[in-house]
Amino acid sequence: MLDFEIFLSRIPGQTVICIGDLMLDQFVYGEVSRVSPEAPVPVIAVRREETLIGGAGNVACNLATLGARCVFVSVVGDDAAGETLRAAFDRHAGRVEPKLVVDCERPTIRKLRFVSEHYSSHLLRADWERVSPVPAAVEDALIAHVEAALPAADAVVLSDYAKGVLTPRVVRAVIERARALGKPVVVDPKGRDFSVYRGATLITPNRKELGEASHRPLAGLDDIAAAAEELRRTAECDALLVTLSEEGMLLKQALRQPVHVPANPVRVRDVSGAGDTVVAVLALLIATGADFEAAMRAANAAASVVVGKRGTATASALELRSQLLPAAALASEEKIVFDDAVLAERVAAWRKEGLRIGFTNGCFDILHPGHVRVLSRARAACDRLVVGLNSDASVKRLKGEGRPIQDVVARADVLAALEAVDLVAVFEEDTPIELIRRLRPNVLVKGSDYRVDQVVGHEIVEADGGEVVLVDIVPGHSTTGILKKSGKAPDRAGGPALPEAAKPR
């Protein structure tokens, strides 16, 4: 039996080294309604812009979002794009440790995409890159970073975009040192010569890459399985997994029949970065002790999550769990969202039905009668209630060391199980102001220990014609009080001193 609960519970304790080509992914979203008078090209009316960590960096982001730790090794140029990427990794502080070697002779890889939001299609992509092997000095620095991190690592990922970081020398050095220490190595390959990855644990080509590397037509699953076994032997790896887009995945291990799993049914919005998610989940599951088939099924589930999002996306542990576990156990978890696009889509559907959207927020570290009253009264004031939930990092900043008592998965699970709650939206900031700006609720609810002018976001809701509702609190009930009674109240020393109006409830 595939016990995914056990494997998923082990993820927070895993450390994965990822090495590969780093990119700055930029997206410009807008609408196209006319042709330029200057040339026969479409004009995009820009609505918003997005800057993301791409390439192998997206593998690191996936690992962090899933709750693991990643030591990320790559190369940047001495330029503004490189500085932007360094700053972007700060959002994953504590989960991603970037080891970025500067190569002054090349620019940081940058990809700028123009996307029509109405048609969900890419109009144009502009690339800044120099495709060539990194020099020997940079190779030395990359290998040194990996060697230093290997003893404490549980797995290694080689994310090859064929831009020059993973030279044959770097690949061989990483695989040989990792295998000598008994660390599994998962490779997302590029090129037609898989022998360079000789000795890796698992290699994950897509259908096109497999066809080019095997020099044979791939008409059906039998052809794919035969080509996979041929390349597995060539690369002397334990297993080879072929990603087949809408057809799912096929796994070929030594001395075993191939295993094929179909893709999960999903509305595909964007396939950008899906391969990064797959390789991240494979490495993590193998690190937790899962076999190749269990790891494949988890990766297949994670891929179905990210292709349902726009742009270079990641999958959270909650989203992965909701895809893997039986539907009967997931009714509450379907309410939990980390992704802004998914939140916007659900709320937009409610608005289309003419429903009144309510919002409240808090840390909800230990759920007590005071919380329940606020949530039930909030739901009574609207048709659909969205609860903003502070992330673990946010709670720690607000409440100090020792908090939260329960991690975000546990807190979100408990909230989502309540009948009064229709959606749980996790946010990283100290206050939900940005979430409120995106959500634009009709009703904003807080406890009566606030005044209306102290409630974060009151001006946004009132400007839209909405209202702020204050609910009478239950005296004598608070998380801090519960912890004091139990004798386990954490020392709040070092936590930020917040004005009363800024304290989340």
3D architecture notes:
- The protein is an alpha/beta fold and 505 residues long.
- It folds into two domains: 4-325, UDP-N-acetylmuramoyl-L-alanine:D-glutamate ligase; 337-502, 3-Layer(aba) Sandwich (Rossmann fold).
- Helix content is 35%, strand content 24%.
- Strands 5-4-1-8-9-10-11-12-13 form a nine-stranded mixed sheet, with helices on both faces.
- The two termini are 41 Å apart.
- The model is unreliable at 491-505 (pLDDT under 50).
- One of its GO terms (biological process) is lipopolysaccharide core region biosynthetic process.
- In the N-terminal section; belongs to the carbohydrate kinase PfkB family. In the C-terminal section; belongs to the cytidylyltransferase family.
- Pfam families: CTP_transf_like, PfkB.
Indicate the proportion of strand residues: 15-25%
CATH architecture of the largest domain: 3-Layer(aba) Sandwich
Question: How many E strands?
Answer: 19
Number of domains: 2
Roughly how many Å apart are the termini?
41 Å
Q: Report the total helices.
A: 17
Q: How would you write the strand order of the largest sheet?
A: 5-4-1-8-9-10-11-12-13
Instruction: Output the radius of gyration.
Output: 24 Å
In the CATH hierarchy, what is the superfamily of the largest domain? Ribokinase
Q: Give the CATH class of the largest domain.
A: Alpha Beta
Spans where pLDDT lies below 50 across 5 or more residues: 491-505
Pfam families: CTP_transf_like (PF01467), PfkB (PF00294)
Keywords: ATP-binding, Carbohydrate metabolism, Kinase, Multifunctional enzyme, Nucleotide-binding, Nucleotidyltransferase, Transferase
Active site: 276
GO biological process, one term: lipopolysaccharide core region biosynthetic process
